Structures are given as C-alpha cells and as structure tokens.
Here is the input.
Amino acid sequence: MVMALNKLTVKEIVGRTLREFHSGQTIVLGTGIPEQLAVLSDPAAGFQFISENGVNGYISGSDGTDDFGLLNSTNGTVLGCPGSSVVSTEELAAMLRGGHVDFAVVEPSQIDINGSFTHWTTDKSNGIFAPGSALDLTHGCKRTIAIMPHQNAQGDSNIVQKCDGMVDGVSSVSMIVTDIAVLTVSDDGLKLDEVAPGWSVEDVRAMTGAPLMINENVKEIEFSQLAEPIKSKVSESGLDAVRDIVDGSAVMIDGFAGPGGMAHYLLVALRDHGAKELTIISNTAGIARVVNFGTPPGRLAIDHSILIENNQVRKAIASYPVSPSASRPSAFEIAYKQGDVELELVPQGTLAERLRAGGAGIGAFYTPTGAGTRIGEGKDSKIIDGKEFLLETGIRADYALIRGYKADTLGNVIYKGTSRNFNSVMAPAANITIVEVDEIVEPGELDPESIVTPGIYVNRVVKRPEDFSGYE
Here is the structure.
C-alpha cells in the first residue's frame, strides 16, 4: 500500500523548502539536492542564496563562456543576481560562524531524533571523515534545514533514533523536508507537521525509523513559492536610523584619528537622539576635535567628543584615547580624569583583531602583542613555540555606525581610499550595523568585485545630506 504512493519529486521538495524563506533573508546551499534551490527559485523572490565558493546572491546558469569566475558548491558556473558580491572562503566561514546567515540547507544521508546528522559526503567516504563544509554550514546559521529522501536505496529509513556513524552536525537541524513529509525537530523529538499528497500519517510513520509526535493540525504539503518584494535597507534620515539605540548600548564608531572615515551625520543624529550610558568602541575616543586635521578656522570637527560633552558616554574601549597635545586635552581625557567615564585600553592591532573575531564568531585568540607590558597584566597567557602569547576575547557591540562612499539599497558598501580603516571590520561585529554614505544606488550598480562590506552585514543605509559638513 505504502510503496504504491507517489513520492515527491526533487522539484516538489525544493518547492516546499522555498516556502520557508522571506525577503531579505540569506540562505547558504550545501552540495547535492540543496543546489537545486538556486535552479528552481524565482529570481525576484527577494532572498539571496550563498555559494560555498563565496558568491553572495546567485542563481544557477551560465553566461555562455568558459569563465569559471562564479561557481556553486560543486564548481558549476552560476550567475550573480543584482546586488551580488564575492567573498573569500575565509570570509564565508566568518559569515557562517558569526551567525550572519539565516539558513543553511544541507542533504544528510541520515538524521536522528535530536537533529544530529551524517552528511552524504561523509557517508560515501568509506569510513574516512569527509565533512567538507557541512560542519561550517550548520554551526552559526540561525536555522538548518535538511532536505533528503525519506529512505535509502535499500528501503531503510534515513530518519533514525541515532545515526550509525560519525556525525557532521550535533543537534543542528531544526526542520526536515523529505519526499513524503515535513518534520520539525525539538527538544522533545521529531514532530510530523505535513504529509505528501495522498499519504497518511500512518504511511509516514511506517517508513520512519524513529518515534514521531504528530501535529494535531497535520496538513498536506504545499509547493507554491511565497513571492515577496525585495526589501530596501534605506532609512529616511540619520535620526530614523539610530531610533532604537537605547541607554546602555555598546556602539562601535569608526574613524582612525582625524575626521576621515567617520560617520559624522550619524554621530550628530545619536547626539540628538540622546541615548545615555553608552559604551563606545573605537580607535580613538575623540581627538579630531582638539587637533587640527585641516579643520577650517572657527570650526570644530565632529567626532566622539560630541557624545562625551553631551554626557552620553559611560565607557570607552579604545587604543588611543588621549590628545597628542597635553595643552589641548580631549573631552574624553577631561571626563576620565574627573572619574565620569571608564576606559579599556587595547592596542590598535589587537582592537582590530578582537573586532574581526567578534564578527567571525571566534570567542578568543592568542596574540603576542602586549606580552610583558602593562597591557598583559592580569591576562591569561600561553607559551607557544617559546614565545608568550596573550589570550584576547572577541568584541561584539549592539550597534556600529560606519562610513562608506557608496552603498546599494541592499546594504552592499564600497569605500574610498584609507577612509575604509576600521569600518569594514566593525560592520560584521555589531548586531545592527548602520552605514552613512555619500550616494545610494540600485542593486547591480556596484561592481561585485569592488564591494568590501557585503549587505549581509548591514542593516540600515542612510544618505549623508549633500549640504552636511563634518565640522560645526
């Protein structure tokens, strides 16, 4: 009886899976059946597929040449969508570990009641552990969906109480789409939510090698895609962009020393917004206001100082928090000497690496910088190859206010010259990244090869008014 029923085709499995995604979300596709999502999806659906080879935003297809510039997970040529960008393998791994990707879609050969799975590449490796990127895909993504046949070629269930061999992901899958059913994974086990047309709950139960809970509203699987318009990340104004920064937030603010690369418009907006008890994370704590970096006569540079002068800052994490001129102390120096603010001092390179680690989902790392100095006092250290290394932790913040040159409406950013400085490393390390730019363009107008900060890291984009000055 069961074997006479029609199982779903790959196209139908993919169709059901696509219903999980919404505009603005990002989905990394593993090898095997998951690659078909990029073949069968509506290019106008509003979400972006990510290739293991580093293409953010692609569809399957070829430009008709032999140029292997854009590849999918199995080295097939693909086409970038408007608003696509290209990253290295290291950057892709950082996106995954750092929790920046909404979904991973994988094809296990076997999955158990806890959502642990053995990837098909490991299963076919004749006893040699061969996870490829399967481990990376499922460690950091907000949700992992498994798509697979319900049974193997021998008629045994691919869904079991415990995987037979090595697993590539531990309790990482939250949803399973097979050729006969849709199941969810919870702490209580597997729940049957949907069945293929013509199939009953008992039919599915009979083909499953693990206990099933049954959703009281179990329904028939649907396949139509849910089309949604592509969402723009553009904010109406600086004040609108910083509207939800609350008292006590940690805020990254770019800028090397002078005004170059600093989000002046957003800083003024944050001052006007008025959030207090802020922790600011930056290379300096505001010295452009007291040092003449080409400041016009009678004007003052806009920098971190405007927040300190407005009594909005509780603490600074910085590498150069003082003015180079003892006769012209910065607002932060004055506040620090009065006991109004706290300071965590971090070497400049270590600060950059702590930011990178925070954005890449790395909890801590060892560095030789600062060993044997005041910086190393009280820190854990380790001797590696005869040299002392300090243990430093990654830094994340609630918000990052960064400055770009151009951005598209999806949040992809390019910079101009050395104004890039800390901007690009701060963007991935914040829960909400807001970028201020001179020009906003439509998706596809930026060269994918020139994009430095992919839109996956950016939540809001605001245009700096043409008549706005970085001085007041």
Q: What stands out?
A: The mean pLDDT is 90. The first strand starts at residue 26 and ends at 29. The first helix runs from residue 10 to 18. The chain is about 15% helix and 25% strand.
